[in-house]
């Protein structure tokens, strides 16, 4: 019977610890925005400025994709 009292007291301490950590995470704002991290990976990374040497390579590279200003026609 004394084992049950010991297990109840240990489980109460563990629950209290988890509750404290959860409330601390809420207070620090960890759960404020739950949707953005899930869709953040769908967007492209911000462009990083490249060196002049890389700029010349990009200018000589030809692309087969249409520009954003050109309209696509469907047939």
UniProtKB/TrEMBL annotation:
Regions that span the bilayer: 6-23
Signal peptide: none
InterPro entries assigned: Cyt_oxidase_maturation_cbb3
Keywords from the named record: Membrane, Transmembrane, Transmembrane helix
Residue spans of biased composition, Basic and acidic residues class: 51-75
Location of the region described as Disordered in the Swiss-Prot/TrEMBL record: 49-75
Highest taxon listed in the record's lineage: Bacteria
Alphabetized Pfam families for the sequence: FixS
PANTHER family per the UniProt record, alphabetical: FIXS PROTEIN
Protein name, UniProt field: Cbb3-type cytochrome oxidase assembly protein CcoS
Designated gene of the protein: ccoS
